[in-house]
Design goal:
This protein is of the alpha/beta class. The chain folds into 2 domains: about 1-75, Orthogonal Bundle (Arc Repressor Mutant, subunit A), CATH 1.10.10; about 85-260, Rossmann fold (3-Layer(aba) Sandwich). It is built from 12 helices and 15 strands. The chain has helices at about 1-10, 15-25, 35-40, 45-55, 70-75, 80-85, 85-100, 115-120, 135-140, 165-170, 195-205, 245-255, and strands at about 30, 60-65, 65-70, 105-110, 130, 145-150, 155, 160-165, 175-180, 185, 190-195, 210-215, 225-230, 235-240, 260. Helix 2 (about 15-25) packs across helix 4 (about 45-55), helix 3 (about 35-40) crosses helix 4 (about 45-55) and helix 7 crosses helix 8. The protein is globular, with a radius of gyration of 20 Å.
Amino acid sequence: MENKLENIKNRRLFSLEREKLITTELGKGAKSLEELSSALGVSTATVRRDLMILEKKGIVRRIHGGAIRLDILEGEPIFNEKKLIREKEKSEIALKAASLLSNGDSVYLDGGSTVLGLCQHLKTLRNLSIVTNSIMAIFELMDSGHKLYLVGGAFRPLSRTIVGAMTSKTISLLNFDKAFIGTIGITEDGISTTDPDEAYTKELVMRRSETVILLADSSKFGKKSLAISGDISDIDIIITDNKLPAKFAKFFQKKKIKLII
């Protein structure tokens, strides 16, 4: 593929050629405008126009500073790709979530990319006891001064989390004031993820938490994945962005779930 690209760079590409090459490049994962520009030997402005066309065709989704192929999004993208999707919304959701915390809280942090964004706002708080199954969260908070606890279990590389039956021993011994949970999808049935072991760990945590707070941008609503975690009634608060479909807002009100936009 690299040799083919090098040969093509020596002449002007037709738009359909560029679209095919962009689609191929995005098959390796999310790419920035600069990466696609370099790979094709064209300007970022040209890449941006091609991405707009590909998005209208339903082939890609544009994300902040780049794009990802939709067929990859239908499954579960790797963690670094998740962070690039709806970055602005996730950042605002994480900031709002931090405002719900108080000094001295016992907190559980799930392995989602939005929950990871919350870690950046915890350094101004004092004396938190933080339990997590997220390797990324531990890395982010290792110099925070908070008490950190990592649950034991099987390592899941795709989400960089510890999951499965072995996590139950640790989680069953603990009580959490607040648990911050992420999700691949949420419907009237509850939250769901692509991995049954991860779903199991989420469900264990929700049972041990005084307040369960779901952090989910609006693209997650109406989306189903393989394994459901608990019941919709297990969730106390949902923080999302202002593109939440109206039918879900009404549903959560009926279920007495607090909704924060």
